[in-house]
Amino acid sequence: MATVAEPLVGRAAELGLLDRAVAELDRREGGALVVAGEPGIGKTRLLAELAARADARGHIVLAGGASELEADLPFWVFADALEEYVAGVEPRRLASLGDDVRAELAHVFPALGAAAAAASPDERYRTHRAVRELLERLAASKPLVLVLDDVHWADAASVELLGALLRRPPDAAVLLALAARPRQIPDRLAVALERARRDGTLARLELGALPRADARQLLGDAIGETLADALYAESGGNPFYLEQLARVSATRPPGGETVLAGVEVPPAVAAALAEELALLSPATRRVFEGAAVAGDPFEPELAAAAAAVDEGAVMQALDELLALELVRCTDVPRRLRFRHPLVRRAVYEAAPGGWVLGAHERCAEALARAGASATGRAHHVEHAARHGDPAALAVLCEAGELARPRAPASAARWFGAALRVLPQTAPAQQRVGLLTARAGALAATGELAASRADLLAGIGLLGGEDAAVRIRLIGACAAVEHLLGRHDERAPGWPGRCTASAIRRRPRRPR
């Protein structure tokens, strides 16, 4: 996490809790905390303060964040935080990890090498145990603080892993520090957080608006009292909104409001963001849009591919973006972050729709040339694929197969994208295969009704010559009906009063 440049204004009670959490690490005691609050209220800034204080004590601090536009990449928030560090760790520190553990970890951190062979979705919890063991090894010599921001956007695989770490924390001095918007936390993660809070293993910090006095200090002496009062009233005491309004308050032309559609912030703040972006040169704005498509964090090379410019143009644009503090450097060389997720979202949604499609296509091509896995390319392929494109279909199917054992929610997404790309003229067996694959992934995530719908659709596409496949799908459908509690409904495609419970009770014929 980037070094904190200026002192934090206010938040004395919250800082006291952070200090206590770091002090517990000094006593080799781990734990977890979550900072909850609305967008822009200061969650990321508070986590940065925690990281700085832990780093000052010599602790290991690793930080990453989920992203709204990468919510389909399995284990992304953990890979963002840990992969670069783990890849550079001295081999002797991880020597005690068995080959099977390292193979499981490769599903989360591809830089570690070959991943374990595909396994049953029920066995994905081996990956959770492997990550727990990795954290214990990393914290063996000195305490570890793992900072994960914006976990309300975390992919389903990361949510499952977070839940596992909260249920069974690492047996080491590991502090898991999270930030989230409370109303957007996935139900599964919300349950895990509440259970950990009740068990006394997690502290929850609810951030509210800054008091007026703290907001006045944040604005500084250059802004007069009258304007400061107006800015505070408009921002509602939200530090990010306050900052955005203050940035343009002195330079906004009379009547020069700009509409920025699609950004869920107060209108005045959306206008402030739009006016700030309007200060960029056209070339820099195009690179900024390319970075928004590439990801957050992003690397200059992929932003250059997205924007269809050379590396020199990207570096020149980055100088302008860094000077305006629209992007910031990270601790990883040649990797940058947007100043705030809302800034990235604003840029992405304001970019022309057709250009965004082309930018995703260029990202997918650049990642393919770099040897990225199908999982790494699928996000861009999904956005850019043409209907009936066999290459895109192959990438999406491969990504689904790779994700199915340990990230079934992502697998369901990729199989669904493949079904949308699949041409109407495709053989029925191919469509049935994708429907069956998505049904299995959906069932593994608990989406039983959607799984049943896919199985029924597959059964409806089968011809008379597909008896073996039909029986297999009917059996799978009966199992889902049973899980749904519909024990006495007639199984689809079977004659008479053959019900789901009857199929499950039917004895096997002797061989």
- Number of E-state strands: 7
DSSP summary: helix tally: 23
Sheet with the most strands?
5 strands, parallel
The CATH topology of the largest domain is given as: Rossmann fold
Output the strand order for the largest sheet: 2-3-4-1-5
SSE succession: HEHEHHHEHEHEHHHHHHHEEHHHHHHHHH
| Secondary-structure-derived class | alpha/beta
Identify the CATH homologous superfamily of the largest domain.
P-loop containing nucleotide triphosphate hydrolases
Mean pLDDT: 85
> Would you identify the CATH architecture of the largest domain?
3-Layer(aba) Sandwich
Tell me the distance between the termini: 63 Å
In percent, how helical is the residue content? 55-70%
Integer-rounded radius of gyration: 25 Å
The coarse overall form would be globular
Classify the beta-strand content into a percent band.
Answer: 5-15%
Could you name the CATH class of the largest domain?
Alpha Beta
Overall tally of domains: 4
Low-confidence stretches: 253-263, 495-511
